């Protein structure tokens, strides 16, 4: 015990050095990579304006990065390794924190236009029926597809068995015995070093986590006088949002993760702290705080003094800018799952495209005929599109961002809380609820990134197909919204006047 304590005391210097290296990477390299990506996005956005097309710059860069990764990994593995080491950690960080970037859309929901009671109930009915119908149709098509695949595979195997002879395997007892003895020896000899390594790494993680909290707490302290004196809310609201989200995400036990969803509680606690500082300030109302949270001055308008003058960006503008980077980061799971994408290409593309085309035309048509106003009827088509891809979609079709944000959040949360139960109920069999392709595609198309983040903890293999599904589904929607002729058709359907 004394020897172990001395060893740990000596290792604190190494732990401190490793922690400093980690923080240097986290707060310097990540910042540099983020700035470079934002500069690329800004340049693409300006180029798109000149050309006159309506394809969002993050989607262009995401597709470009996906193709670039495939070509680079094939042409030069060495250069690919360098590119991977430089960019992947930053992009993967955005995938992990993507749910945080959805917070600004929900923070501003109280500023939404009021709607009548009749329209509210109609919206609720359309949402519930549409959710169940799309969920069931996608599930049943996948079950039918799976059944046909199984029968075809079974017939092929029977034919194959008739044609080949079974050859008994050669046993290699001696080799196995030697390997097992080597394993025992290596396990016994390395137990002490494994213990030390685990202890060191846990200490590094603990120190890094503490430093993260300290940095955001300093931002919180500095942000208080800036908010009270100058009404600059960036540091105060950003630190509150990140600290609440990080605490709930990391400190909630896994068994309670469904109940204490970080997205819901972050929005609620942010509103709560907003109200507290409004009372302290006595000069800022709750509505003013919501407007200060997102002023609209994202990275695209950071140097636009003619429009924003001396208006500072808000915490929401900062997070929305990072949301664009998270769209680019979706190219990483697509690249890593390219084998699965190739193997299930027809299934993924045909089902996702069919669902996207149906929702693109049917949701506005049905909503308009049931009395929902044009912008909200248009927003319904993005009901199950993940926020990262849905925002450019809704912007292209002139839909209601507020309704889209609300329906997307509820769709994702329903997938977290009820997804497994609905698959078992509508699939008639527990067998289908254990099929990773079925579970992944159903939740990916219907529930987007919120449910996918939940699957990463409960069913990582299904999360892979969920990621591919919501990306393909969302991309098809965005591409359709970039075609002027299709946009004109749905505008006529809902009677939208520009």
UniProtKB/TrEMBL annotation:
Keywords: Membrane, Transmembrane, Transmembrane helix. Coiled coil: none annotated. It holds the Pfam family LrgB. It is found in: Membrane. The chain crosses the membrane at residues 27-44, 56-75, 120-145, 206-224, 260-280, 345-366, 435-456, 462-487. It is a multi-pass membrane protein. GO terms for cellular component: membrane. This is Uncharacterized protein. It comes from Komagataella phaffii (strain ATCC 76273 / CBS 7435 / CECT 11047 / NRRL Y-11430 / Wegner 21-1).
């Amino acid at each position: 015990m004394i020897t172990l304590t001395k060893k740990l005391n000596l290792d604190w210097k190494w732990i401190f050095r490793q922690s400093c290296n980690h923080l240097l990477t986290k707060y310097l390299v990540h910042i540099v990579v983020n700035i470079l990506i934002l500069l690329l996005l800004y340049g693409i956005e300006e180029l798109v304006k000149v050309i006159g097309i309506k394809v969002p710059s993050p989607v262009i860069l995401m597709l470009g990065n996906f193709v670039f990764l495939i070509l680079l990994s094939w042409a030069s593995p060495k250069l690919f390794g360098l590119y991977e080491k430089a960019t992947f950690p930053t992009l993967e960080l955005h995938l992990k924190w993507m749910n945080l970037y959805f917070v600004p859309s929900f923070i501003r929901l109280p500023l939404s236009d009021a709607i009548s009671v009749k329209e509210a109930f109609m919206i609720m009915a359309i949402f519930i029926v549409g959710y169940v119908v799309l969920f069931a149709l996608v599930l049943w098509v996948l079950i039918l597809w799976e059944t046909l695949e199984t029968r075809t595979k079974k017939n092929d195997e029977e034919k194959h068995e008739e044609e080949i002879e079974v050859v008994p395997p050669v046993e290699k007892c001696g080799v196995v015995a030697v390997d097992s003895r080597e394993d025992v020896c290596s396990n016994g000899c390395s137990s002490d070093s494994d213990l030390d390594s685990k202890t060191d790494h846990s200490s590094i993680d603990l120190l890094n986590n503490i430093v993260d909290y300290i940095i955001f707490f300093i931002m919180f302290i500095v942000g208080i006088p800036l908010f009270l004196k100058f009404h600059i809310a960036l540091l105060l609201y950003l630190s509150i949002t990140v600290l609440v989200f990080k605490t709930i995400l990391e400190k909630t036990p896994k068994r309670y993760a469904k109940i204490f969803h970080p997205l819901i509680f972050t929005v609620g606690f942010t509103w709560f702290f907003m109200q507290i500082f409004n009372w302290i300030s006595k000069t800022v109302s709750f509505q003013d705080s919501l407007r200060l949270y997102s002023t609209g001055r994202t990275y695209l308008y950071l140097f636009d003094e003619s429009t924003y003058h001396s208006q500072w960006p808000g915490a929401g503008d900062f997070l929305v800018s990072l949301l664009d980077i998270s769209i680019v980061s979706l190219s990483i799971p697509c690249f890593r799952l390219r084998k699965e994408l190739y193997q299930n290409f027809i299934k993924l593309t045909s089902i996702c495209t069919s669902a996207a085309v149906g929702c693109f035309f049917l949701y506005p048509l049905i909503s308009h005929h049931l009395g929902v106003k044009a912008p909200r009827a248009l927003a319904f088509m993005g009901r199950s599109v993940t926020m990262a891809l849905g925002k450019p979609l809704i912007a292209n079709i002139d839909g209601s961002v507020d309704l889209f944000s609300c329906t997307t959040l509820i769709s994702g949360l329903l997938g977290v809380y009820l997804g497994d139960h609905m698959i078992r109920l509508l699939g008639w069999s527990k067998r289908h609820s254990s099929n990773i392709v079925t579970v992944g595609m159903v939740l990916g198309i219907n529930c987007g990134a919120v449910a996918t983040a939940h699957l990463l903890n409960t069913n990582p293999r299904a999360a892979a197909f969920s990621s591919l599904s919501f990306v393909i589904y969302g991309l098809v929607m965005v591409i359709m919204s970039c075609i002027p002729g299709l946009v004109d058709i749905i505008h006529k359907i809902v009677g939208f006047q520009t």
